[in-house]
User: Fold this.
Amino acid sequence: MDDDERSEQVRSALLKALGVFVVIIVIIALGTTFLVHALGLNGGSSGEPLGSGAASSPSPLPTKALPQPGDSESPSDEPTDEASPGPGDGKVGDIVLEVSPVIASPMERINLTGTYKGADNVQLQVQRFDDGTWNNFDAKTTVRVGTYATYIMTGRHGENRFRVFDPQANKGSNVILVNIQ
Assistant:
């Protein structure tokens, strides 16, 4: 083989490698773009890129829970028969609690989200209703600009009643029911 043939083979190999490299880069770019849009990391439905200065609050986790009786304004031992406020129904100072899922397996993550209108930087205690009294559950959350989110896990089978409680204001949220099967 002479030098011209070797040069042509090297050039051909380099062009093939460059072509493969370009194809890989295009696939990575398309995949990244698809994932960014699929995961909603492109700034949401407003079409503005992230960091564009548009202030928006994160939306709470979805809920399958229906409002349940038992809105409690004080740390009483018994849930009340009043209807629970639904999402967006609360007034300033009302603590509204939502849950997802309402039926779970033992030790499955149960998301608690909600609003506490007019509150900021307030710590809420998650409580479970046991044997006629509200007992602190091993979970707390902090209200940030009127919203909060946390999760719990429990292995106690059957119907469990939960609420969040503001010990400073001596005020409880609506009661939510979670069935552990």
In short: The chain has one helix and nine strands. Residues 3-46 form one domain. The chain has two domains: 3-46, 57-181. The first helix runs from residue 3 to 38.
